[in-house]
Amino acid sequence: MKKKRILGSAVLSLAMGVSMFATGAFGAGVQESQDTYRVLIKGPSAEQAKVKEQYGKRWDFGKQGFTTEVNSKQYQALLKNKNIEISQVEQYTIDARVEGNDNGKGNGKNKGDYTAQASYPSDQTPWGIQAIYNDNYIQSTSGGDGIKVAVLDTGINRNHIDLTDNVEQCKDFTQSYSSMVNGSCTDRQGHGTHVAGTAVANGGYDGAGVYGVAPDAELWGYKVLGDNGSGYSDDIAGAIRHAADEGVRTGSKVVISMSLGSSGKDSMIASAVDYAYSKGALVVAAAGNSGPSSNTIGYPGALTNAIAVASLDNTFVNGTHKVSDFSSRGNPYTDGDYYIQEKDVEVAAPGGGIYSTAVDGNYTTMSGTSMATPHISGLAAKLWSSNKYWSNSQLRAEIQRRAKLYDIKGGTGAATGDDYASGFGFPRVR
């Protein structure tokens, strides 16, 4: 039996400092103040061992090298070491806009500690949920039982009334490796909590909250981005590998959902995505928000072993959903080949004006391919839970097949078939 919703019961420590613009997943790789340097060290094993002994290690990626943090003086010394190869670790970011909060509290910007009121949402099944279920009158959702959805983001508010029963793992990868399994995944930014709600929100204790696509799925909240919405690629790569290994350890099907990115390809993340796919996980990632120009898709969405998700608006052209202007596009010269190559959009989903769970315990609206991604992650969990014998490649093929059934090319102006704006199209539950 579900518990009664208690208003005004949670006291949350928040320092959002949200600096978000119109689109929800991507920013360029930005390095922070150079008082410290996060670096990747490569070279002969004996030379790597010397550096590890001197400076320690953060993540060890075997033949790919290891990462560590050094100060400016140490960085200059490492650059002079001709026996090793050193490079700065790239940063990945989110860039989403909070468009509104129906409870009149704003988005928490510049606030410190305050009492969160667990109010009721204005819409239990927002337009994106109705669209992916192909039902404008749906009042609740179901599915996803037994499937793990690992949300790699700014963390989650694990006490949100619509998420708390789903949370199975909560880990912070922005700390050192030794402390990343500490049960902490605090979200002070809001992006991760919003994304998680679209994928798995369960309606709350009393069923009067908001619903995600797969409310019965288990949520793994992996904090890989800091409170400013940016994070290092080695932490992200480590979290990807950890999620895949946890799937193997627990004998579970895992969907890895990443509403983050960068314009550049990072070798650590690329290798981690390949590793996760080889271990049976399904990787879903945002296409990016650098549209409408072609060839603007970002990473890790651009990788062939990740499903790149474009954004759709709740507006129609020729009777079909319009691809958001901000949504990154792939390569137009691969239109209609029905084959996913690097830098191709694979599918599209609702991403414009998406209403979901807010970090203060309430609800809010954001836009971006960040918001489109968890619709597909939730769909993957729902489909997989009913077909657990499927491999990740079989699940991916089914998602593509369903996208073709609901072709949205009339809304993009592109040629019929696999196109650079919406990929195969918009896959739905039914």
Molecular structure report:
By secondary structure, this protein is an alpha/beta fold. The protein is 23% helix and 22% strand. The chain contains 8 helices and 19 strands. The strands form 5 sheets. Strands 9, 10, 11, 13, 14, 15, 16 and 17 form an 8-stranded mixed sheet that branches. Strands 3-4-2-5 form a 4-stranded antiparallel sheet. It has a 3-stranded antiparallel sheet with strand order 7-19-18. α5 runs parallel beside α6.
Short description:
The chain is an alpha/beta fold and 430 residues long. It has helices spanning 45-55, 72-79, 127-133, 191-200, 233-250, 267-278, 369-385, 392-405; strands spanning 10-12, 36-42, 59-60, 66-71, 85-88, 91-93, 97-100, 114-116, 147-153, 167-172, 218-223, 230-232, 253-258, 282-286, 307-317, 320-323, 347-350, 354-357, 363-367. Residues 144-423 form the Peptidase S8/S53 domain.
Uncertain regions spanning at least 5 consecutive residues: 1-33, 101-117, 410-415
Q: Oligomeric state of the chains? A: single chain
Please tell me the overall pLDDT.
Answer: 86
End-to-end distance: 29 Å
Q: Order of SSEs, N→C?
A: EEHEEHEEEEHEEHEEHEHEEEEEEHH
**Shape, principal axes of CA atoms:** globular
- For the secondary structure, the number of strands is 19
**Largest sheet data:** 8 strands, mixed
Estimated share of beta-strand residues: 15-25%
H/I helix tally: 8
Helix coverage percent of residues? Answer: 10-25%
Structural class, please? alpha/beta
* Cα-based radius of gyration, to the nearest Å: 21 Å
